[in-house]
Amino acid sequence: MSRVEILKSDGLTLVGVLENNSPGTKQLILLCDGFPATKNHAFFLELAKALPVDTFRFAVGGHRESKGDPQFLCLEQEREDLDAAIHFFTQQGYHIVGLIGHSKGGSAILDYASIRPLPGVKYLINISGIFDFEKSNNHFGQSLGNETKSTRENLNGDYMSERSVNRIPSNMPVLTCHGLKDEIHDVSHAVAFANLIPNHTLRLVEGANHNYDGHFAEVISCIQSFIVDSSSIRSQLQSNRFFNYTRAVSVEGVKNFRDAGGYSSKYGMVRPRYLFRSGELSKISDAGKEALQQLGIKRVVDVRSKTEIQRRGNAGHLGVITKHAPLLTEGEHSPEVFGLKWRLYTNKPEGLAQAYITLLEHGKPGVADTIRYILEDTDMSQPVVVHCAAGKDRTGLVVAVILWALGVDVDTICADYELTNAHLKCKLIHPEPSMNTDPSVTLDLNADLTALAETLSRKIGKKIDVQGVRAMLVAKPESLRLVLQNMQEKYGGPDGYLISAGITSQEIEELRRKLVLPIRAKL
After folding, report:
1. Is 322 helix (H, G, I), strand (E, B) or coil?
2. Which residues pair with 270 in a beta bridge?
3. Where are the beta strands (DSSP E) in 95-185?
4. What is the pLDDT of residue 230?
5. Which of 4, 43, 297, 453 lies in the 20 to 30 Å Cα band around 446?
6. Beta carbons within 8 Å of 36's beta carbon, 6+ residues apart
């Protein structure tokens, strides 16, 4: 650890602390703190030492040891501070790989990324940053006294805006962490960033205040995981403003495991880290079991048939409560016969859509059982995972219906469904431009495609080639969109479908109360 003084172009000095976490690598993360905290306050000090590369932490805006006119919200001065730090360490041979900011430091790095090119920077991490200046100013104006008297004189226009954060490049992964008990900037600031930044992950920390007292380990672990995930293939795929690929959770031995929460809804935001979706759990490793325990998952909904469970096993060995809620019964509508009664006769989206419509009609009891099982958790303390074999078709439909009932828009629901392509790593023979599929990703499925094609050909009495099998394995969002359009026309939307399945209006409202956080951005 060493103190560093940087002379800025205006003749003032920027003072910070350099932590040599990885001597010789010459990679650096800048940590920008805000007011009134100091760069050496406990949370930032622990974070600086826990990161995998060297860090330089400082307070933006002329605060603490840095020289200048202390100002609460002056974007120009904060940009100059970041310019100076980046220039200085670049001249020292460092490669700046990440920017992390807390409070107004978080807002500063997001503003900076919206107007400055950041070659080499791999991620941005915003910890309790400010979006709505007026709301924060009401708090600080009462408590900071004369130290920020120049704020109003130097602030031009709004602090952050939809226009500015929308300019952050879509290939730049951004994490926002925010405490649900933040007493300075409430969680609506975080939701605003989540709704507007193109490639964004939102992590809400239960019980945490603005400085994360008593929650250091939790938020630091979240940041460390995000840094690792940002180097993975998921962060290189095309993103959407309502989701990002870091919602995937690594559960060894389980395919396609990811969080179905965190999406913007017309009622607020779908509760994160509660409803998960995945492929089958029977091959989970010991490390995977530990990951489930860390997520607090105590309940499982298995929507596969009895035949599949007998043949492939279930989650009974995991110490969780399992609810069997098959979408199809045995016999005529078994998964094998349904299997490709529709979808393997054609590679067109309409074929798969018709198969899904049939599945949802016959699967109403399973959908209803799944929702009632979720509602049994009276205090929302027992996260649940819904799974089938691959986490694509049956799981995808159940989750789509739930998200639609929770007020998530159709575009986002279809995008969530399409994420299966990234998580199962299916390489298409003829990739479609509209799909979030990286052509450099190789097929990563255990089944031998030729053998699978022969098996399916025998089952349905029609020749299926390898290309047909690959088409079967791909999640096509346009197919799901046709399904939802059909439900809208036939039932008037998700509520009508669920009522036809036996779910009451009161149960639908209870589902929304439990799975939606009533927070929305003030835009």
Report:
1. strand
2. 516
3. 95-102, 123-127, 174-179
4. 65
5. 297
6. 63, 144
Q: What is the mean pLDDT of the chain?
A: 78
CATH number for the segment(s) 2-146+157-237: 3.40.50.1820
- Taking the C-alpha atoms of 124, 125, 128 and 133 in order, what is their torsion angle to the nearest 10 degrees? 0
d(CA 66, CA 45): 17
The residues facing 27 across adjacent strands are: 95
Give the distance, in angstroms, between the CA of residue 281 and the centroid of all CA atoms in the same chain: 22
Which among 82, 93, 77, 187 has a CA at the least distance from the CA of 135?
Answer: 187
Helix (H, G, I), strand (E, B) or coil at 361: helix
Q: What is the pLDDT of residues 152-193, one digit of tens each?
A: 444 444 455 555 787 888 778 899 999 888 888 888 788 778
Residue whose pair of structure tokens reads 């691959």 in the numeric block = 390
- The helix/strand/coil state of 271 is coil
At 469, list the tokens.
Answer: 């099998």
Distance of alpha carbon 269 from its chain centroid, rounded?
12
User: Taking a C-beta distance cutoff of 8 angstroms, is the pair 164, 112 a contact?
Assistant: no
Closest CA to 202 of 221, 223, 177: 177
CATH number for 258-425+462-518: choose from 3.40.50.1370, 3.40.309.10, 3.90.190.10, 2.60.40.1180.
3.90.190.10
Contact yes or no for 341/460 (Cβ under 8 A): yes
The better pLDDT of the pair 480, 469 is held by 480
* Length of the chain (residues): 523
Q: Which residues does residue 248 pair with via DSSP β-bridges, in sequence order?
A: 258
Tokens representing 223? 């940041």
pLDDT of residue 400: 98
Among the ranges given (13-22, 138-147, 388-397), the one the predictor scored with the smallest mean pLDDT? 138-147
Residue 261 or 466, more confident: 261
Alpha-carbon Rg for the chain in angstroms: 25
Q: Are 389 and 312 in contact (CB under 8 A)?
A: yes
* Strands (E) located in 261-404: 264-265, 268-270, 275-278, 299-302, 321-324, 384-387
The residue among 48, 41, 45 whose CA lies nearest residue 20 is 48
Give me the residue spans of the domains in the chain.
2-146+157-237, 258-425+462-518
